[in-house]
Design brief:
89 residues; mainly alpha; 2 domains; 33% helix
Length: 89
């Protein structure tokens, strides 16, 4: 008897799919939430994600813009010092 009931699978099969990747590297086959590109499990749910202006998402440490710029300036300073030493010697 399970095969005789009509299924409402047409709209479900025609809907957009989630664009996320699984741990296995395959794409997620769950339907995307209306108006979004992700399913409910990968960030398409309402109120998901960080709130606007969230300060907890700031980068810190080795890869901040300030740290990268500081390392660039240090490399330039070291290169110039090396050139000066070689020109004197």
């Amino acid at each position: 008897m399970s095969g005789t009931f009509p299924r409402n699978s047409g709209p479900m099969l025609a809907s957009l799919r989630c664009g996320a990747r699984t741990r296995a590297g395959k794409s997620c086959n769950a339907p995307a939430v209306d108006g979004r590109t992700r399913c409910r499990m990968h960030g398409g749910a309402p109120e998901s994600g960080a709130p606007p202006g969230n300060q907890n998402a700031l980068k810190h440490g080795l890869y901040t813009k300030a740290a990268i710029e500081e390392r660039k300036q240090l490399r330039t300073l070291m290169r110039d010092a090396r050139k000066l030493v070689h020109s004197i010697a």
